[in-house]
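Researcher: We plan to redesign the surface later, but first we want a full-length starting point. Tokens attached.
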């Protein structure tokens, strides 16, 4: 079982905890940390997307955020972001390398693998500047990673021209984070 803190609308723990599967079944608000890995190449900003494993409980085989995960009960956003980077991509970074870009509230309901999935979360979104190709993937979570031109990726999400689970609202927050990285 993966236990999560139940949170209020602002992302503050209420003191109650719940199993992740129950949270997703009943639409109980919880926290996640999202890290978007970015680099500048050929005078363009690129974003690393992971392709989710076909065995994931939600959005199987879809392109997604570079690294993301639930905040376990008693943990904080940064701690979880660093843990997920290490687990999913084999990347170790310092806390001060993550740049806070913003907060996003999300509510989404769908059915995956014949089971209701009702996601209600508060996400802290970070950007990370990193130029590398040698990722060690957690195969249960990630089937592959690929660099995309950020502007092209944005248009592909808007036009829904590839299989993804990315929201333009979050990419808008990432744009704010890009400004803080001083690529130009």
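Model: Full-length starting sequence:
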């Amino acid at each position: 079982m993966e236990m999560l803190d139940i949170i209020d609308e602002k992302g503050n723990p209420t003191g109650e905890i719940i199993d992740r599967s129950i949270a997703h079944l009943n639409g109980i608000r919880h926290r996640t940390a999202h890290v978007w890995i970015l680099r500048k190449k050929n005078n363009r900003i690129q974003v690393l997307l992971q392709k989710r494993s076909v065995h994931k409980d939600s959005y199987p085989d879809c392109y997604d955020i570079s690294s993301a995960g639930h905040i376990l009960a008693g943990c904080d956003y940064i701690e979880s972001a660093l843990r997920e980077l290490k687990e999913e991509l084999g990347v170790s970074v310092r806390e001060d390398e993550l740049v806070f870009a913003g907060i996003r509230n999300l509510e989404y309901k769908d059915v995956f693998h014949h089971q209701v999935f009702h996601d209600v979360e508060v996400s802290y979104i970070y950007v990370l500047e990193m130029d590398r190709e040698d990722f060690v993937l957690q195969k249960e979570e990630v089937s592959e990673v690929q660099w995309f031109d950020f502007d092209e990726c944005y248009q592909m999400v808007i036009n829904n021209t590839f299989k993804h689970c990315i929201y333009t609202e979050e990419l808008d927050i990432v744009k704010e984070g890009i400004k803080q990285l001083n690529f130009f």
